[in-house]
Amino acid sequence: MEIIIATDASWVVDDVTAALSADDVNFTVCGEGRIVSDLVEENTPDLVILDMQIGSMGGPAVTMSLRLDESSGLLPHVPVLMLLDRRADLHLARRTGAEGWLIKPLDSLRLKRAVRALMAGEGYTEGSVAPEVPVDADAEADVAAGNSTESTEEETVNAG
């Protein structure tokens, strides 16, 4: 397996390589986000792991660049795992086209799970579970029976 790790933090490289090292895994480490597309073009990896901050171009911008190059036929599709600095970065990750993201601090179990899911063609996200909405069983049964209690008529509203 070929993995590109793009980060300018040596501890991220250490954590990722320690968690994912195996005989069949090769890592290419990149400290500048602007060259990730070139690395993907040179030797298509199985996975790209992007830190939130990578030199002068962060993980969200790199992911969007990869997806734009893919949509124009310049690059093949490569799964992206983004490493988020905080929960507040979730909205950025959702909009980039990344297949997965983890919120730091990292640990080997979560990294392995995320990589396994992405290699199986699944997504892996943290912190984005929608709150469960309680279901009114009686209302649900009425709708199923065609007895909706909600009005579909429009009401006229006068201003002033």
Structure description:
The structure is a single chain. α4 links the parallel β4 and β5. This protein has a five-stranded parallel beta sheet, with helices on both faces. The relative contact order is 0.13. With 160 residues, the protein is of the alpha/beta class. The protein has one domain: Rossmann fold, CATH 3.40.50.2300.
Topology readout:
Elements: E1 2-6, H1 10-20, E2 26-30, H2 36-42, E3 47-51, H3 59-71, E4 80-84, H4 90-96, E5 100-103, H5 108-119, H6 137-144
Parallel strand pairs: 1-2, 1-3, 3-4, 4-5
Helix pairs in contact: 1-5, 3-4
Q: Indicate the overall shape.
A: globular
Distance between the termini: 68 Å
SSE string, helix = H, strand = E?
A: EHEHEHEHEHH
Do you know the CATH topology?
Rossmann fold
Q: Structural class per helix/strand content?
A: alpha/beta
Let me know the largest β-sheet. Answer: 5 strands, parallel
Q: How many β-strands, per DSSP?
A: 5
Q: Strand order of the main beta sheet, please?
A: 2-1-3-4-5
What is the tally of helical segments? 6
The share of residues in extended strands comes to 15-25%
Q: According to CATH, what is the class?
A: Alpha Beta
